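Incident log, structure service

09:12 report received: a user says their structure output differs between two submissions of the same chain.
09:20 pulled the input from the user's history:
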Amino acid sequence: MEAIVRGQRNGITTRHLAEQFNVGQFTIVGVLKRYHQYGRVLTLKSSGRRKCTTRLLDRNILRLCRENPRLSATDIAKEISVGLAKVPSIRTIRRRLKAGGLYARRPARKPFISLKNRRARLDWARAHLHWTKAEWQRVIWSDESKFLLFGTDGIAYIRRPTDSRYDPKYQIPTRKHGGGNVLVWGCISSVGMGPLHRIQGIMTGKVYEDILENVMLPWARQHHGRAFVFQQDNDPEHSSQMMKEWFRRKRVDVMEWPSQSPDLNIIEHVWRELGKRVSHQLASNSDQKFALLKKAWEEIDKSVIDNLLDSMPRRCQAAIDARGFATKY
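09:34 re-ran on a clean worker, output below:
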């Protein structure tokens, strides 16, 4: 500190002093100001309570959370407590995590995607990236979905940086059809909303064949003639030998589909929209629930489908950018 004062007396500028001592000019100015104010160089006592954690401990807290985003503040406290005379409180750890940009968030629920399926998703996205609007308009999109009669699914939280919701390590894998009160099958296309069919009991290959024979095919022939491509996922009842034979007999073109790819199927957005529209409407039984679903389904405007079809090039590009992992869609 005294060397800074001597340097100024010898005519060295604050800029050159800052360069010489490898500090900022404001630091040099502060040292000189205190010297001229108090007649000697000193470090004033800082105001406020001293931090109970060191910079090293703060870095360790952030490191543990980044290595395992599912750790709670309590878990982190247990991890860092070894060898510490005084362990910081859970509240302090939460403050350090927030200061480091790691907030508790609801993780995105996305299907687990194996390496094989990631490669298949990439191949599919690349093959369809440059499809024209007319080609997408030929596709009939289909799927099943369940709707709970009462309540909702539980909410989980995870700590992650901002803008990282769809990073695979911050997602929670899900599996289809964990149960529910009302199970439905539906289809959509460029002409708008197709039929919504209630599935009674368990979806079997025979039940699925009956739906396609008596629900999907008459609607498809009426609105698309024979010039359509049918999209379905790879559930066993969809891809069985019996169904392959049915598609062959009926001369229905089936789109090749990569497994674990709900984000590439635009009907998934329709299911979410449908769920929102009936979420605040009470039903005392499954029949009433299906009636609410059917009414809301029929009220979804064709413009919703048009916008979803327009999103297909972006969905393909997103799958490519994500290297086959799940996307935001």
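09:41 both user submissions now match this output. Likely a transient worker issue. Closing.
09:42 reviewer note: The mean pLDDT is 89. The two ends are 59 Å apart (CA to CA).
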